[in-house]
Amino acid sequence: MRRYIRQLKLFLTLVLTVGLIIVGSTRIGLVPPVGKLLDPFHGFWQNLESERLEEVYTLNLDGLQAPVTVLIDDRLVSHVFAKNDHDLYFVQGYITAKDRLWQMEFQTHVAAGRLSEIVGQRTIEYDRFQRRIGMTSAAENMLETVIKNPISRKIVNAYTAGVNVYIDSLSPSEYPIEYKIFDYAPEPWTPLKCVLLAKSMTWRLAGGSTDLKMTNVLAKFGLDTVEDLFPRYPKNPDPVIPKNT
After folding, report:
1. Are 29 and 120 contacting, i.e. CB atoms less than 8 angstroms apart?
2. What does the domain layout of the chain look like in residue ranges?
3. H/E/C letters for each residue in 14-33?
4. φ and ψ at 58, to 5 degrees?
């Protein structure tokens, strides 16, 4: 009887251990694999220690034509001092990725209709909308224009190279915590992602989908009412020019 109980305990312990390993390494919905997230060597613990920022430092990175000096002011804004344009935009990409890598990439996924790759089925309709309005197609057309100009082509290529140098410098334990929470890794940056960000910003600032609604309001209430309720320009706007200018 005692032998049977010991064997049962051993079996239950084994089942529990295997179960914990499986659960700890499996993503459930938006919940990341708990084991990976809590891993003291690669998980979120590695993101708890803040990097000590030097007020002035010099970068000697692969891809730079000369050393570049970076000054961080009291507002934590980086000021780049380079000897040529290539290095200036290269380091701008590197620093932006260092400060905002996850935000940059997440926004390009949003713009391209790829958000469901990160957060699952709940954003399928949003992704479909982004693809139907042709956000990626518009970005591809814009990129063709960008690369036709030798100056803008050099700028976007240098910026892209700087972002990728930073991405390549990261080990999984050094990924921003958002990657660990959503359980995925950063992709290589591309010039297309640069213009996807630009197109996404254009849509946010100037895009709209109220034409059908406004047409119905116009048909029901007439032009005078629409102009009164939805003026094209506000009356008596406040000037933005400072006094004594």
Report:
1. yes
2. 2-31, 53-206
3. HHHHHHHHHHHCCCECCECC
4. -115, 135
Give every CB contact of residue 67 below 8 A, 6+ residues apart in sequence: 58, 59, 60
Fold category of 53-206 in CATH: Penicillin Amidohydrolase; domain 1 (1.10.439)
The answer to whether the beta carbons of residues 63 and 161 sit under 8 Å apart is yes
| pLDDT of res. 42 | 57
The tokens describing 207, both together, are 């895009």
Q: Please give the Cα distance from 138 to 73 (Å, whole number).
A: 37
Amino acid at 109: H
Report pLDDT digits (tens) over 155-213: 999 999 999 999 999 988 889 988 988 888 999 999 999 999 999 998 888 877 788 78
Give the whole-angstrom CA distance, residue 161 versus residue 78.
Answer: 19
pTM of the model as a whole:
0.74
User: In this structure, what token pair is assigned to residue 97?
Assistant: 């990725």
Tokens, residue 114: 């790829």
Instruction: For residues 109 and 135, give the distance between their C-alpha atoms in angstroms, rounded to a whole number.
Output: 11
| Alpha-carbon 216 to chain mean position | 37
CA distance 19 to 9: 15
Burial class (CB in 10 A: 0-12, 13-18, 19+), 234: exposed
> Look-up: residue for tokens 């002035």?
56
Q: For residue 113, is pLDDT > 50?
A: yes
Q: Where are the alpha helices (DSSP H) in the chain?
A: 2-24, 34-38, 85-112, 116-119, 124-132, 135-148, 150-169, 177-182, 191-206, 211-221, 223-229
Q: Could you tell me which of 106, 89, 101, 82 has the C-alpha nearest to residue 162? A: 89
Residue 65 DSSP symbol:
S
